[in-house]
Amino acid sequence: MLTKRIIPCLDIKNGRTVKGVNFIDLIDAGDPIEQAKIYADQGADELVFLDITATVDKRKTLVELVTKIAKQIDIPFTVGGGITSVEDAYSALQSGADKVCINSAAVRNPNLLNLCSEKFGNQCIVLAVDAKQINQQWLVHLVGGRKQTEIDLFDWVKESVERGAGEILFTSMDHDGTKNGFANEALAKISNLVDVPLIASGGAGTKEHFRDTFLHGKADGALAASVFHFGEIGIPQLKDYLKSENFEIRIN
């Protein structure tokens, strides 16, 4: 069994960490540089940084902030938000990111996945996909969840991996911030479709939710924000729990 990963997520707006419910009603959740260091020290396996309004504001990812965070941590670091070209991906990687996360830009220009994968290797390319159930179909949403498409989640994930995405970060908009658990049925379907690592996002509220997404959702990693930001679940305690449930977990 592969080691399961626990991944805090820093959603960034105006240089601060924020968190909302169903992608709206954002509240301040702290200083991202301080949080990054704390999470690395607590034993997080990776860190994800998403500049959530970069695409909306039509600007680039906050490279200076990425650089500062990268200097504080010694764990894999994924950066996304506003990455629309090979040059943007290069800039993020040069600033200290280990992987880049591409979402809306990949839907608008799927060849971007091919180009980035060829340039940097697919291990550096994460496809982030935000989706919501509309009339019993999972549809991809863009621009931080603001724009619905008619693209089927599962078709898009399969195509993205064929084009060079080396990892999938799937966020269920229906579950985001609700703390009612991950979208495990959809996650399991994705896992069966592709042979790259799958990260579950949206819905973490208890330690049992992490167990369930590894067990039933077949996720390789679980990403969460508010339960970590506000101290509801401690990463060391979560890892001890998962270890007791017989999962392969990296313990510091």
Concise description?
With 252 residues, this protein is α/β, with parallel strands linked by helices. It has a single domain, classed as Aldolase class I (TIM Barrel), CATH 3.20.20.70. It is globular, with a radius of gyration of 16 Å.
Roughly what is the average pLDDT, rounded to an integer? 89
Summed up, the domain count is 1
Distance between the termini: 19 Å
In DSSP terms (H or I, runs of 4 or more residues), the helix count works out at 10
CATH topology: TIM Barrel
Structure description:
This protein is α/β, with parallel strands linked by helices and about 250 residues long. The chain has one domain (about 5-245): TIM Barrel. The protein is about 35% helix and about 30% strand. It has helices at about 30-40, 65-70, 85-95, 105-110, 110-120, 155-165, 185-195, 205-215, 225-230, 235-245, and strands at about 5-15, 15-20, 25-30, 45-50, 75-80, 100, 125-135, 135-140, 145-150, 165-170, 200, 220-225. It has an eight-stranded parallel beta barrel with strand order 1-4-5-6-7-10-11-12, surrounded by six helices. Strand 2 and strand 3 (about 25-30) form a beta hairpin. The radius of gyration is 16 Å and the shape is globular. The two termini are about 20 Å apart. Residues about 20-25 and about 55-60 have low confidence and may be disordered.
